[in-house]
């Protein structure tokens, strides 16, 4: 289903008067509001193809109705989100869960919805049906050269799928590691992984990037071969200028200072971008901004500061993507909430009084530094986000529109109650 522009405009009329009032109230206190609005309109967050169905845990999965059963329907779902917020103009594919049967047709379909293809993701953390060798004891780190070769070839195949779709980057997340002390020689595991990554790196087209994502634990619980940003940075530094470290917010040990990690990776020109989610305990994959919105703001504050210091384009120089699992919410509603939370944190970072913050930092005025940050964080920027949406032709109230138009009910009617998304 495709949303009509007229129905979005008609819905916006209902909210327009109160929106204008709210927007003017906040906008008059912010200098350079038009520049901020332009940045917000340009900022796009990619939606992963695996997040459009209901997620689950190892204990169970409670699927909702009308899930997208194939890649075409997933693109249609991202198209719906993008029509509602105009901030989700890209989709990120997981191979082999979402191999396009005909890339030309798929590319055209995405273009109809105004979507581009973001990073392609390889998968060597599961065994696929008919796969010759098992990844039970790792993939790129494996003691058996034949298993490493199979995993390398898979990654190169993923690059080929990406080329056909117009992607420009490969994300590699490895579950490689060990579950028990003594299982693995750490140095050999690192060196084997590095050699394997080198072979994949060599297969990258010249204008491509490789993202190496780290994770502290799970599925391996004693060691992870790419377990933290230091290990990833070691790989990406040695690999070369096309390799970058990818930060997934949920992949840290509790209380890690992610904003500091981000700042230093940017200093070294090694930050790839983000996988957004939120967590209370571990890799919970909850809706970004639902648990710790202040941390999200502090991360964006470092991002904006770091990107501006390097003269980077906020919208295009780093990769922005959601990586969450929606176990109890409607995935489309959850993704609308996620993008909104990201835009709020970004807008708050844009309105930080930078001159005052620098002055406070240089004079060790700790109190003022906190006041400056929290003044931005406590500003209700939602009318600014809504104004950016309005100017971009999106819905003033995306979630309200989704519910009042009964979009899920229509999807269930089209696809059925039992349609289950591929992938997770
Ligand atoms: Mn991730």
Descriptive keywords:
424 residues; alpha/beta; 6-stranded parallel sheet; 3-stranded parallel sheet; 13 strands; binds manganese (II) ion
Could you walk me through the main structural features you see in this protein, from its secondary elements to its overall organization?
This protein has 424 residues and is of the alpha/beta class. It is 48% helix and 10% strand. Strand 11, helix 8 (258-267) and strand 12 form a beta-alpha-beta unit. The structure holds manganese (II) ion. Manganese (II) ion is lined by residues 173, 213, 248, 275, 323. Manganese (II) ion (MN) binds at residues 173, 213, 248, 275, 323.
The proportion of strand residues reads 5-15%
Output the strand order for the largest sheet.
6-7-9-11-12-13
> How many beta-strand runs?
13
Kindly report how far apart the N and C termini lie: 23 Å
The helix-and-strand class reads alpha/beta
Small ligands present: manganese (II) ion
Ranges where pLDDT stays below 50 over 5 or more residues in a row are none
Overall mean pLDDT score? Answer: 96
- Amount of helix: 40-55%
Task: Output the number of helix runs.
Answer: 15
- What letter string, H or E per element, gives the SSE order? HHEEEHEHEEHEEHEEHEHEHEHHHHHH
From the spread of the alpha carbons, the general shape counts as: globular
Largest sheet: 6 strands, parallel
Provide the gyration radius in Å.
22 Å
Put the structure in a nutshell:
By secondary structure, the chain is α/β, with parallel strands linked by helices.
